Amino acid sequence: MTNEELWQAVLAQIQLNISSANFATWFKNTKIISQKNSQVIVSVPNSFVKEWLEQKYNKFILKILHSLNEQIKEVKYSIGKGELKRTLLPVEETNQLEFPEFKIDKETNLNSRYTFENFIVGPFNELPQAAAWAVAKNPGFIYNPLFIYGGVGLGKTHLLQAIGNEIVKNFPEKRVRYIFSEKFTSGVVASIRNQEMERFKSKYREIDVLIIDDVQFLAGKEKTQEEFFHTFNALYEKNKQIVISSDRPPKAIPALTERLRSRFEGGMIADISYPDFETRVAILKAKSREKNIDFSDEIYNYIASNIQKNIRELEGALNRLIVYQKLNNRSPDIESAKSLLKNILYSPKRVATPKKIIQAVAEFYDLKEKDLIKNSRKREIVRPRQIAMFLLREILNSSFPFIGKKLGKKDHTTAIHSCEKIQKELENNENLEEEINLIKQRIFSG
Asked: Lowest CB count within 10 Å: 55, 72, 210, 232, which one?
């Protein structure tokens, strides 16, 4: 296996476990430049990426490398000199996997591979797809803003980028900008630090179509929310199109200012749910056709049966089989496929634990885990704590004394009261039901 083939196999697995934003940020322009004895050296573009990979991803990268080649025991990172060539070339040029995140237009931040034509439509995403298509055909005048939400890996980014690419194709004079909310935040921070706030404002207010991904990360960042609010108003008043995505609806984003929430709710809100079995199979076959690869229906059905709630994971599983086929010059049979995918399909991350439940609740409500455990009667703490108790009981069937002990050494009667309160409220509160379903998605997706 060449260095390039080995690194692409690593990237195929990393994509399964991190967001597309993080993948593009930390793994763009990386490649293996040396493999000697038990050590692999990875070239990175700068010292910031080097430090981040060493501290945050090194164990994960080493684990994957070792699973692919048991002789590898160590990973080192080296800063490349000058501008690195793009690590991953198109499939037709290299006969290797292609990672679309790397083909980014510098002006728009759009990836030309994300289109409506290769977006698979099913019952789970018909409404957001139709709304996205309408916006792309008449930007600024239909469904403004368009707010699309759904769980991790269900195609929100694909749909947002498809809107941008369609508008660029039909309205070349329009200035389109796709951006992650974290990038917007870092821009605000840098502008304040460098005293360039006016320049930052004019940069965004001259845009005709603003597409912002993962807007939930604006929660709790007051200055960023304030600036985004004013940017939103400036664009909206000029009939400029605004498209937003999130992992939850506006009303479920904690620490979001009410005026910004009302702006989000003032347009079209559409949710992407889980794809059914037939759609999952169709997605797998479509992705295979894109890469000029084909597998047996038995393999497609096996993957679709075992990965039910994440399109990104479907594609990641497919990528692993494609790597196998390209390296071995033969298609895997069903037994080989099961062996290759066992670490994905039976990963421990899919099992709920008390710690995972408490962590998911804390993250959802923008709290620290210790906030749920400490003795506080603030509503913003009490409510999430009650929900955590309810989920411990519902998902794990934990005893009330155990639940009370886990959440601040509370008496078991407190746990009973909390569970009964949430259960009763669920009967008439659709918002609460939606929040709990979103938290469950976090618990079982990682």
From this structure: 55
Give the pLDDT of residue 56: 83
pLDDT at 198 over 60: yes
Give me the CATH number covering residue 266: 3.40.50.300
Phi and psi angles of residue 210, each rounded to the nearest 5 degrees, phi first: -105, 120
Same domain, 366 and 379: yes
Overall pTM surpassing 0.70 (yes/no): no
Structure tokens at 288: 């295979």
CA dihedral (18, 21, 23, 25) positive or negative: negative
| 235-239 own/partner pairs: CB under 8 Å, 24+ apart | 235/204, 235/205, 235/207, 235/210, 236/144, 236/145, 236/263, 239/140, 239/141, 239/144
122 and 37 in one domain? no
Q: Report how far residue 292's alpha carbon sits from residue 91's, in angstroms, rounded to the nearest whole number.
A: 9
Please say whether the beta carbons of 243 and 145 come within 8 A.
yes
Residue 120 inside a domain? The answer is: yes
Give the three-class secondary structure for 148: strand
pLDDT in tens, 6-45: 898 888 778 767 766 677 778 888 999 988 888 999 999 8
Edge-to-edge strand list for the sheet holding 31-36 = 31-36, 39-44, 74-79
- Sheet holding 268-272: strands in order across? 176-180, 209-213, 241-246, 146-150, 268-272
Domain that holds residue 317: 277-346
Using the 3D structure, point to which of 329, 346, 363 is the last residue of a domain.
Answer: 346
288 inside domain: yes
Looking at 241, 272, 303, the residue that finishes a domain is 272
* CA distances, 104 to each of 33, 44, 368 (Å): 24, 18, 35
CATH code for the domain in which residue 7 is found: 3.30.300.180
The residue count for the chain: 446
312-315 contacts at long range (C-beta below 8 A, 24 or more positions apart): 312/15, 312/16, 312/20, 312/152, 312/153, 313/16, 313/153, 313/344, 314/280, 314/283, 314/284, 314/287, 315/15, 315/283, 315/287
**Do 45 and 29 share a domain, yes or no?**
yes
Query: Under DSSP, is residue 19 helix (H, G, I), strand (E, B) or coil?
Result: coil
pLDDT (tens digit, 9 = 90+) per residue, 233-268?
999 999 999 999 998 888 888 778 888 889 999 999
Number of domains in the chain: 4
The predicted-structure confidence for 280-313, as pLDDT tens digits, reads as follows: 899 899 888 888 888 999 999 999 998 887 888 8
Close Cβ partners of 20 (under 8 Å, ≥ 6 residues apart) = 101, 157, 312
CATH code for position 372: 1.10.1750.10
Taking residues 102-124, what's their average pLDDT? Answer: 85
Q: Is residue 74 part of a domain?
A: yes
